[in-house]
Amino acid sequence: MLTIKVLGPGCANCKKVEAIARQAAETMGLQAEFIKVTDYNQITGYNIMSTPGLVINEKLVCAGRIPSPSEVTTWLVNALS
Amino acid sequence: MNITNFLLNLLQGGLGNLAAYLAAHVLLCLVPAFYIAGAMTALIPKESVTRFLGRNTPKYVSYPAAALAGSVLAVCSCTIVPLFAGIYKKGAGLGPAITFLFFAPAANILALVYTGGVIGLDLAFARLFLSLAFGIGIGLIMALIFSRSDIAHDKATDVMFAGQSNKGMRRAALAFLLILVALLLSGTLKVGLLTNSYAQLTLPIPGVDRFQDFLYRLAPYNAAKGEEGVTAQGAILIGLLAMIGLTSWKGMENIHAGFTRWTWIALGLVGLTLLTAALGIQPHAGGLDILFTGKFFGVLLALGVLGWLLRKQLSEDEQRDFLWESWRFVKQIFPLLVVGVFTVGMIRVIIRPEWIEALAGQNTLLGNLAGVIFGVFMYFPTLVEVPIAKMFLSLGMHRGPLLAYLMADPELSLQSILITATIIGRQKAWVYVFWVALFSTLAGLIYGSWIDGTSLGLLVLYLALFLAALAGVLWWANRRNQSRAVAQGVTTD
Questions:
Q1: Stretch B379-403: mean pLDDT
Q2: What is the DSSP string of B327-347?
């Protein structure tokens, strides 16, 4: 099962990323554990400059912007293989 | 005074204030400002500035770069805080991080434009320059006070900032941003070329003047209180804004799934609103006079170029990110602004000018301190500090304490202090609060003296002497720290 972390304090952008990620996982019929990381000390541990950030299985795939659903799908597929 | 009359007065006060803030001249500066902020967030790659914030960058580069980052990279706290944490922990250190943290809320584009449009250009420039001077000053001071702990956390090697390549802005994106600024300027500059009207059209709509009178009875025009009343133009604009809200909700909220018809309708309405705001509209007995001012043509031209750039020159990602970021700012800030402005209008009815004049009517130390303390303890959402400042101004507050309030309020909400404390620790956070309060008071005093007529040269001299004294103390403290560190066997930079 994939572990998907959404990095961000809960602002509109982070919520959007989480929504898109959940949507993509659902469309693929994927089982995934979603974790919201809101503590800034943990967030900077992933080397991102601005939230939101998306981490799949401890790999940072997206930082500082909102990905499109198709991009997230590609990353999920890559993470599975 | 009976309770119904009182409540009615409150309501009228709120509505009147709201109408003033949705008036044509405010919209012409606020609406472009939201899009400029959106463009900066979406189109300026962070690496272009943050590569100057690496650990080993010399101070004369990292501090100005931190200020630049604060002005163009960050408008909302979700960008400010992670970047602040990153610069502090993995980049240039506490000093530039603090400069960034100070400068971003104090002098970001939305705040400056709104201050300039609502209160006056003088205050916006004062806010900008004094924020710059004091932002760098506070950064240097904090770095010196806490130099020992700064050195200690230096150990972890990390090239997150310095190792970035220069991913500059694409020409089309830069042009887009600059034309947005041109749009703002053509709508707001008080220059004869733009404010004169060049053509006139009269629409024979009967009864418009009666509509105008009705509006004036709803929200009366009261120059003494700074209430502008609702004009027919204002009412039309409010209607348009409501439509923009509705269509944007349909067209922008899910823009990551794709552009829809509603997206373009919403954008069209924004353009229409700006054009309507740029016209001169005068109702009279026979109909409606529409004056085609210079700014109308300027706005029209800018909108045309922007539309072309948006559709033909920006990539789809850029279009989407730009529209989303602008909409996000509107969603986040505009409702709070409306509520805040309405509330300020109501409070305005209750507060007596005598109280304000007694406390902050003159450019005294107490007055400036009062402005700062009020800013610290009262939390207002972004941009709402501007209408509040305007209210104080109309109640008799001197411009000096006003600037002190304007600088302290965005910096020092309890929430932001708490978040800062989680990153740099409570001790450093409260020391930061102290210095911000001190410098805001000082900024107010300086600006207030200038308004009162003290010559600019004298003030620059005072400021220079103060900064020189500060620099001297800091240099001496630095020398003392270094010799202490050497004595203790700790290597320093």
A1: 86
A2: HHHHHHHHHHHHHHHHHHHHH
Q: Considering CB atoms only, which of A12, A43, A69 is closest to B257?
A: A69
Question: Which residue from B minimizes the CA distance to A70?
Answer: B257
What six digits make up the tokens of B465? 């002497």
Q: Do B130 and B103 touch, CB atoms closer than 8 A?
A: no
Higher-confidence position of B485 and B402: B402
Which residue in A3, A10, A11, A69 is the catalytic one? A11
Nearest alpha carbon to residue B444 among B398, B390, B386, B401: B401
Segments forming the whole domain that contains residue B479: 45-168+351-488
| B367 is a domain residue | yes
Reported as a single tens digit per residue, the pLDDT across B90-107 is 777 888 999 999 998 888
Domain assignment present for B278: yes
| A11 assigned to active site | yes
Same domain, B161 and B176: no
- Considering the domain architecture, whether residues B230 and B325 belong to the same structural domain is answered as yes
| Closest CA of chain B from A70, distance in Å | 9
Q: How many domains does chain A have?
A: 1
Answer with the one of B276, B311, B345 that is the final residue of a domain.
B345
Residues B186 and B330 in one domain: yes
Tell me which residue range forms the domain holding A61.
Answer: 2-80
Question: Is pLDDT at A41 greater than 70 in this prediction?
Answer: yes
Confidence of residue B28 (pLDDT cuts 50, 70, 90): confident
Contact between A43 and B85 using a beta-carbon 8 Å cutoff: yes
Percent of chain B with pLDDT over 90: 12
Instruction: Compute the average pLDDT of residues B34-52.
Output: 86
**In this complex, is the C-beta atom of A21 within 8 Å of any C-beta atom belonging to chain B?**
no
Instruction: Choose the final residue of a domain: B345, B376, B393.
Output: B345
Nearest to A30 by CA among A67, A79, A71: A79
Question: Same domain for B187 and B305?
Answer: yes
Q: Which of A44, A52, A65 sits opposite B89 (nearest CB)?
A: A44
Q: Does some domain include residue B237?
A: yes
pLDDT at B469: 80
Mean pLDDT, residues B12-31: 83
Q: In what order do the strands lie in the sheet with A2-7?
A: A32-37, A2-7, A53-56, A59-63
**Statement to judge: residues B211 and B272 lie in one domain:** yes
C-alpha B20/C-alpha B387 separation (Å) is: 10
Give the gap in angstroms from C-alpha A20 to the nearest C-alpha of chain B.
9
Q: Do B78 and A65 touch (CB under 8 A)?
A: no
| Residues B322, B420 share a domain | no
Out of B28-42, B145-159, B270-284, B433-447, least confident range: B145-159
Indicate whether B320 and B192 sit together in one domain: yes
B190-209 confidence digits (pLDDT tens): 888 888 888 888 888 777 77
Q: What is the CATH number of the domain that holds A21?
A: 3.40.30.10
Find, among B6, B16, B7, B9, the residue nearest to B345 by Cα.
Answer: B16
Rounded to 5 degrees, φ, ψ at A54 are: -125, 125
Q: Are residues B270 and B415 in the same domain?
A: no
Q: Are the beta carbons of B56 and B161 closer than 8 angstroms?
A: no
